[in-house]
Design brief:
This protein has a single domain, classed as Spore Coat Polysaccharide Biosynthesis Protein SpsA, Chain A (Alpha-Beta Complex). Helices cover 31% and strands 26% of the residues. It is built from 10 helices and 13 strands. A hairpin with a 2-residue loop joins strand 2 and strand 3. Helix 5 packs across helix 9.
């Protein structure tokens, strides 16, 4: 199936992880539902997808994640309680999200890594190119969102795309790290990628963050990908298979990114958005 001129219509959100770095808060609350100010991380991600003209949201969840489905649904009791009061405007944003999107869900039964989580989404995505947003990585841009920038790039190159940013060398063992050849400003044709290398083994200082556009052949590649670092099926390993055929580009995006999977990044994001709204 050719990908030519196929629009990106769906966005996949892997949201099955445990969020152990935020225990005990995440014992009963999905980490994707932790709020930055008054909005859950996952809602920021969904709104970024909407900004890129995507209306179909596919969410891979796990046990104990019912709050995600409840959030992207109408709460009739709450709506009734605050209707025609001064508090009604608080629900305006989430109502707009619910009214403008379709949500579908599936579960990742076992935690086997990001590659496995993405593979679980195949039933929701089908055989078409799609976006992936990791809600842990909260991105902000005053003009085009990161995903909007990447979709424009996809329309030109018609291949898988990973968002990357420069990181300190000592942080390389927290990320997938890429290497390749610059083909235009901020765009690299990837020829190597390594999952969480030690600093001395990192092929560059360009780390993959939680924004991807993937072509549908990734699903079959993941099925043939053996467990890698940590005994998990890594999306980095599957993407390397595509990269060896010239099928992956990396994009140094414009905008700010906060690692809200860490307490430090979460606090930085909270302060940033608080100061921005003042």
């Amino acid at each position: 199936m050719s990908n030519n001129n196929i629009k990106i219509r769906k966005c996949l959100f892997p949201a099955a992880g445990y969020g152990t770095r935020f225990l005990p808060a995440t014992k009963a609350i999905p980490k994707e539902m932790l709020p930055v100010l008054t909005k859950p991380l996952l809602q920021y991600g969904v709104e970024e997808a909407i900004s890129a003209n995507i209306e179909t949201m596919a969410i891979v969840t796990g046990r104990g994640k019912r709050a995600i489905e409840d959030h992207f649904d109408i709460s009739y009791e709450l709506e009734h309680q605050i209707k025609d009061t001064s508090k009604e405007h608080y629900l305006t944003e989430i109502r707009n999200v619910i009214n403008n999107c379709t949500f579908s869900y599936t579960r990742q039964i076992e935690m086997k890594g990001l590659g496995h989580a993405i593979a679980c989404g195949e039933t929701l995505i089908g055989q078409e190119p799609f976006a992936v947003i990791l809600a842990d990585d909260l991105c902000d841009n005053d003009s085009d969102s990161v995903l909007s920038q990447m979709i424009k790039l996809y329309e030109k190159y018609q291949c898988s795309i990973v968002a990357v940013e420069e990181i300190p060398a000592e942080d390389s063992n927290k990320y997938g790290v890429i290497a390749g050849d610059v083909i235009e400003d901020n765009v690299i044709r990837v020829n190597d990628m390594v999952e969480k290398p030690e600093p001395q083994d990192a092929p560059s200082n360009l780390a993959i963050i939680g924004r991807y556009i993937l072509t549908p052949d990734i699903f079959d590649i993941i099925k043939d990908t053996k467990a890698g670092r940590g005994g998990e099926i890594q999306i980095t390993d599957a993407l390397l298979t595509q990269a060896k055929k010239g099928g992956v580009i990396a994009y140094k995006f414009k905008g700010k990114r906060f690692d809200c999977g860490s307490v430090d990044g979460f606090v930085q994001a909270t302060n940033y958005f608080y100061n921005k709204q003042k």
